[in-house]
């Protein structure tokens, strides 16, 4: 392993990390702005022009607030909870290909931190691990509402992971690869996007992504109207901040994943017909990718301020009795289509 | 139970059809509504910079008026205190001394005039009761205070600023 | 090799911690860490698919369910049932048997010839799938039927008895 390679990856990791955090920070502002606009209000607009400094103020507030650890809480796990939540949220973005390779001098720089052979499954694993942060925090608080939130989070995430995995299997049958880099590279142009091949699979994946990130209408673990604050009832100051932050980072990573595997990632229509050099195509591609991601984040928020929360039994019914059979049917349909295509075309 | 008005209507809920059961069309309809609101005109008034216009008959803080010569109109007759349903107004009357004709219009005046703004319900009955057109509820909102005693407004806060003739002022200079 | 010894030490350490920790929730958490070290072992062997699947299924699903049940039970020392002498005696006998088996196995211990990896990509998804669906198709399908049976049985047990309700 050469020195330049390590430096290159190091810089890339730092950049990805910073971008992730900045986007998560501004998602908190965007959420409040979108909420305001959809309710005919303006949202926060006092800190800076258009409220642009609001996330900094919120962060400062989180850091300087009094930190309370309840007397009956299990101290180590109480601290471990938010730590795990934020770590698992952050490491998910490692396998996402942000763009094609950049050529600087005679070096080819890949815009992906790690091209893991089983990239999609890696993200699944990280998501599966994310529920530990919520569960440990909820249990360690020694509070029945927190425990309820933790238990809900666990059962919800397991139920929806199943449907999510099944919807991905159909996609993998089309792409023939688990590596995110290859999956994105296959979707050149516009007609090759996987959304056209897998509309039903995308719908199932989208719904499960909402459930896995604990966003409305699946935010039962924190459900203010029933459980006070759910799993983070007992948390204060930056620990609460970390939980909220990890939710937004999860949203960003799952938006990036959806944009990458269903909407072509950095590919955009007519990318090779414009007569641009390879580096320019890469740079535009990265921008296009981020536009897609931001569109998905907006969609997350749009849904949040449109739909009410599910009841718990409805949630379970939807997961087990609707999405899983649908995903299975989707796999079967995809298989039939692939065989027919091989036979007749 | 038997309907007395004969207008009772029994609603029958039909079982949902396929499109209603999968909820997606309903969800898209909801999304369309929220998106429409996203681009609508916002109702927010950015308060300190913009203020909402008051209605013409808004009743705010009281003011004790002066006449055209700058003399206090109030004669401490006590009709306002009598008419006040919240018993917010008290006053102590005094007799006008020689040399005070330019201060008080009538021979009797209110030496102390207090309105308890916490009791006042801003009904405007004092305004209607006053025979001398001395009290009007034409001010802004009563500002917030930290102490209850600060809500008892005396003459220092209630009486209108003395009439200043700008031309006279400039002539004196 | 040093990486292997370090990770192996970690797995053994956390496995022991799983057994000796008093709090059942701690036990489960140590078990999770143990599984995590197993995943690292798989990666060291270049079996990325197995590593990730171990990660998702054992750490992400089964252990979450364990934790779920333990959290709901709220077990602590007060609620622990008293163990009878009979149970303790059984434990001692079983432990002895285990030690005898271990000791016996040491007798037949011999070093196997070093494993030669013919194809370094053998642990990757494509190869694994080909092996599963060509050479081992029948066992694979039979095990899937076994799992299905278990699932049907669980659903049956979980369903409410209509006569009693």
Automatic annotation (TrEMBL), chain A:
Enzyme class per UniProt: translocase
Pfam families (UniProt xref): NADHdh
UniProt keyword terms in alphabetical order: Cell membrane, Membrane, NAD, Quinone, Translocase, Transmembrane, Transmembrane helix, Ubiquinone
Keyword DNA damage: no
Recorded catalytic activity of this chain's protein: a quinone + NADH + 5 H(+)(in) = a quinol + NAD(+) + 4 H(+)(out)
Membrane topology, from the record: Multi-pass membrane protein
Segments passing through the bilayer: 6-29, 77-99, 119-139, 160-178, 190-211, 248-268, 280-303, 323-340
Family: Belongs to the complex I subunit 1 family.
Subunit organization: NDH-1 is composed of 14 different subunits. Subunits NuoA, H, J, K, L, M, N constitute the membrane sector of the complex.
Record-linked HAMAP family: NDH1_NuoH
Protein name: NADH-quinone oxidoreductase subunit H
Gene name as annotated: nuoH
TrEMBL record, chain B:
4Fe-4S as UniProt keyword: yes
Chief location bin: membrane
GO molecular function, one term: iron ion binding
Entry keyword annotation includes Transport: no
Membrane topology type: Peripheral membrane protein
Annotated InterPro entries: 4Fe4S_Fe-S-bd, 4Fe4S_Fe_S_CS, NADH_quinone_OxRdtase_chainI
Its job: NDH-1 shuttles electrons from NADH, via FMN and iron-sulfur (Fe-S) centers, to quinones in the respiratory chain. The immediate electron acceptor for the enzyme in this species is believed to be ubiquinone. Couples the redox reaction to proton translocation (for every two electrons transferred, four hydrogen ions are translocated across the cytoplasmic membrane), and thus conserves the redox energy in a proton gradient.
Name recorded for this polypeptide: NADH-quinone oxidoreductase subunit I
Lineage of origin: Bacteria, Pseudomonadati, Bacteroidota, Sphingobacteriia, Sphingobacteriales
Automatic annotation (TrEMBL), chain C:
EC class (word): translocase
UniProt keyword Transcription regulation, yes or no: no
Keyword annotations of the record: Cell membrane, Membrane, NAD, Quinone, Transmembrane, Transmembrane helix
Catalytic activity: a quinone + NADH + 5 H(+)(in) = a quinol + NAD(+) + 4 H(+)(out)
Pfam families, alphabetized: Oxidored_q3
Locations listed in the record: Cell membrane
Positions of transmembrane segments: 6-21, 28-45, 51-73, 85-106, 136-157
InterPro entries per record: NADH_UbQ/plastoQ_OxRdtase_su6 (IPR001457), Nuo/plastoQ_OxRdtase_6_NuoJ (IPR042106)
EC code: 7.1.1.-
GO cellular component: plasma membrane
GO molecular function: NADH dehydrogenase (ubiquinone) activity; quinone binding
Membrane-topology annotation of the record: Multi-pass membrane protein
Family, per entry: Belongs to the complex I subunit 6 family.
Cited function: NDH-1 shuttles electrons from NADH, via FMN and iron-sulfur (Fe-S) centers, to quinones in the respiratory chain. Couples the redox reaction to proton translocation (for every two electrons transferred, four hydrogen ions are translocated across the cytoplasmic membrane), and thus conserves the redox energy in a proton gradient.
Matching PANTHER family: NADH-UBIQUINONE OXIDOREDUCTASE CHAIN 6
Name this polypeptide is given: NADH-quinone oxidoreductase subunit J
